[in-house]
Design brief:
This protein has 10 helices and no strands. By secondary structure, it is mainly α. The chain has a single domain, classed as Orthogonal Bundle (Endonuclease III, domain 1), CATH 1.10.340.
Length: about 160
């Protein structure tokens, strides 16, 4: 089953979706979902300004928190991604404008992978789809990457 789409109302909505993808890297979606409410609270509702100001001491505290997914690299990536998202939002007078400033999906995907940590090819597709941006047909996209689209692989998007 594909992930639920949202209509982002703020930069926090984009950061939360990007962060969820980062935390899911290498883990079961069930594990992430089970801990997500606590993760959301720990990251101040994904308020980008507050997340970007998190100190190394705050990161240490989250790494020690048993209710968290205690991956230092994912926690630090969330902080760095918040910083970069704010910069892109400022540069383009809106994050949605940044997303739509590229010529096509492939150019945007390449730039997103460069700009954000823990965001690979599948994560880019999933992120853009979840936040309601234009993406290629999933079956065409999967085939273009040598993935045989099946109902099972569809559920991992």
């Amino acid at each position: 089953m594909p992930p639920k789409q949202i209509h982002p109302k703020s930069l926090a909505d984009y950061l939360e979706q990007l962060s969820k993808i980062a935390f899911q890297a290498g883990l079961s979606g069930r594990v992430v979902e089970a801990k997500w409410e606590h993760i959301r609270k720990a990251f101040h509702g994904f308020d980008p300004d507050r997340v970007a100001r998190m100190t190394p001491k705050a990161v240490d505290k989250l790494v020690a928190d048993e209710k968290m997914i205690r991956s230092r690299s994912k926690i630090e990536a969330t902080v760095a991604n918040a910083e970069r998202m704010i910069e892109l939002d400022d540069e383009h007078t809106g994050f949605r404008r940044y997303l739509r400033s590229h010529d096509d999906y492939e150019a945007l995907a390449k730039d997103l992978r460069k700009q954000f940590k823990f965001l690979g090819d599948n994560g880019v597709y999933r992120f853009l789809w979840v936040v309601g941006e234009k993406v290629p047909d999933w079956h065409d996209w999967a085939r273009s990457r040598g993935i045989e689209p099946s109902m099972r692989s569809r559920s991992r998007t």
